[in-house]
Design the sequence.
């Protein structure tokens, strides 16, 4: 086990390096970097007089000023030198500083994390609390009308993109019926509310975005649970337990459940940790929620490279470690699994 863990950790290093290197190379060829954006804004400002008349548009920007901006953003150095400097920062877990927001990337992640955690944890818990019992019920009633109808409903929910469902929820429940707010995670008078009022206000705001995210994640967990249960129910030990006269409920929940939930439990760490750091760009944008998804989108649009590279490094590292934990859970859940 120790040798396997060491091997996986050593494999993480070239994987992490490759992801960072490819992303860095791509950013070097994408037009419209921070220096170009500054030049474009300066030219637009120079082209407007006090009354909006163009008078300096053809003069361009002072070359010395451009060199100062390049030095400010670090673009006065060769790409290889900038890449090695960035790797040194990442080795110290220094994610850098945003070009445009004048904040450390760590600080930005901490500021945006509560919104993404709210969405992710609610989606995670609701998905498992509903999908696992539903999958068990479908397996027990396989082939019945309940199984067919629930499969149809689950697959239709899976086929509808989350942002499309979000638009429909906003139009119907936020616009026409006005049952839920259209934007934000809390109301403007949040500080004036009591604790009970804050909880109610928070749940009132989070209902529509969580609904839009949850429905699409039901299908995979539900069908995985159903198929795992069906596979275990057909095995010999289940027939033996039934032949001994054990109640059906005890056979299902004590014997079948322990083996059928192996693929579900092993994916639990990745889903749980991902709930903290996975931001849904479209849902956050649609409901005006300032989370990690919106931060990533804005940093790409504005070419805020420290934020892009810093968050990419952080999330890739978390993903690799989580994948290792998920693999180790196989041994914890099923001792028969041997990595050698």
Sequence:
């Amino acid at each position: 086990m120790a040798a396997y863990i060491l091997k996986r950790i050593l494999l993480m290093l070239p994987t992490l390096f490759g992801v960072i290197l490819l992303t860095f190379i791509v950013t070097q060829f994408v037009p419209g970097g921070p220096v170009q954006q500054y030049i474009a804004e300066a030219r637009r400002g120079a082209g407007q007089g006090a009354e909006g008349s163009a008078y300096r548009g053809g003069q361009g920007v002072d070359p010395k000023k451009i060199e100062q901006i390049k030095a400010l953003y670090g673009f006065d150095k060769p790409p290889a030198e900038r890449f090695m400097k960035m790797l040194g920062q990442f080795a110290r877990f220094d994610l850098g500083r945003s070009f445009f927001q004048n904040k450390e990337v760590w600080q930005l992640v901490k500021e945006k994390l509560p919104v993404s955690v709210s969405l992710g944890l609610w989606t995670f818990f609701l998905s498992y609390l509903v999908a696992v019992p539903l999958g068990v019920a479908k397996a027990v009633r396989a082939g019945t009308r309940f199984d067919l109808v629930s499969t149809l409903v689950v697959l239709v929910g899976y086929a509808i993109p989350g942002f499309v469902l979000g638009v429909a929820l906003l139009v119907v429940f936020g616009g026409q019926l006005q049952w839920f707010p259209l934007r934000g995670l809390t109301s403007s008078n949040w500080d004036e509310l009591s604790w009970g009022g804050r909880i109610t206000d928070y749940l009132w705001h989070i209902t529509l975005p969580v609904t839009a995210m949850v429905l699409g994640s039901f299908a995979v967990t539900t069908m995985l649970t159903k198929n795992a249960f069906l596979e275990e129910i057909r095995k010999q030990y289940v027939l033996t337990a039934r032949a001994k006269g054990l109640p059906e409920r005890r056979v299902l929940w004590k014997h079948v459940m322990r083996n059928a939930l192996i693929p579900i439990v092993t994916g639990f760490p990745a889903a749980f940790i991902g709930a903290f750091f996975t931001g849904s760009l479209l849902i956050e944008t649609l409901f005006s929620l300032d989370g990690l998804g919106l931060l990533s989108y804005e940093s790409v649009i504005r070419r805020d490279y420290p934020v892009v590279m810093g968050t990419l490094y952080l999330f890739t590292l978390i993903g690799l470690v989580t994948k290792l934990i998920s693999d180790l859970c196989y041994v914890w859940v099923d001792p028969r699994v041997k990595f050698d």
